[in-house]
Amino acid sequence: MKKLSKAYIILVLMFLYIPIFVLIVFSFNTTKSRSVMSGFTLDWYIKLFKNEIIISSLINTIIIAVLASIASTILGTAAAIGINNMKKLPKAIVLNITNFPIINPEIVTGVSLMLLFVFFAARMNLEFGFVTLLIAHITFDVPYVILNVMPKLKQMDPFLYEAAQDLGCSPLPAFFKVVLPEIMPGVVSGFLMAFTFSLDDFIISYFTCGSSMQTLPVTIYSMTRRKVSPEINALSTIIFLVVVVILVVKNILERRSLSKAKGE
């Protein structure tokens, strides 16, 4: 039975990662062929970094991802603290509400945000672009931050904050000196998850970016509609490696926090 389960896991991993491995290999192919490896070259990576459209979209994506992650981390952490201090029934209701954007299909979220921005555009002269894209990314990032911060708040001793105040610390310094260090692993994990999802998002960005502001996934989609260039393979390889690095860092931080908790 154990051998069968191991074989099943290996088959699933092969199914998931062989296409990515093929994409990475053919990003170094000398020709545009996607079936025959003719030789090794870095030309497609060089052409990728000379492509102004892709570089511009990459800069847009990083700016949006960083700003949305910072804003959603602040809002999500504050929301998690507020939810944690609620009574049992209101807490359960609010947690279910905050989980809606995670469970909800992205196509529904994307279309609903687009319709909301169209409503405000007609009344407030709001144009689709940087602002609408940033708001949309913050909207779907906040629940993931809450999801990461809430377990750390539950693990924390609820009397630490009150003890700090009893010892003469005012509320705000008590939060930064006592509460924040205790929940910091969850805050960092939430930030990294928000950054990853924001960097990778296509569907919601497609409906809220407009014509003046395009993210990298939207640009890649526009390029693949015409003809898939090996530059896309090179770009996808870089994105994959960046996401892997972020996830590795996230797992290392979580393991350190767990080992620290066990040591204490």
Give structural notes:
The protein is built from twelve helices and no strands. With 264 residues, the protein is an all-alpha fold. The longest helix has 34 residues, at 230-263.
Overall pLDDT confidence:
83
Model regions low in confidence, pLDDT < 50 over at least 5 residues: none
Give the H and E element order: HHHHHHHHHHHH
Structural class: mainly alpha
Search tags:
264 residues; mainly alpha
Give a quick summary of the entry.
Helices cover 81% and strands 0% of the residues. It has helices at 2-26, 43-50, 52-84, 88-98, 100-103, 106-124, 130-155, 160-166, 171-200, 203-208, 216-226, 230-263.
SSE arrangement:
Elements: H1 2-26, H2 43-50, H3 52-84, H4 88-98, H5 100-103, H6 106-124, H7 130-155, H8 160-166, H9 171-200, H10 203-208, H11 216-226, H12 230-263
Helix pairs in contact: 1-12, 2-12, 3-7, 3-9, 7-9, 8-9, 9-12
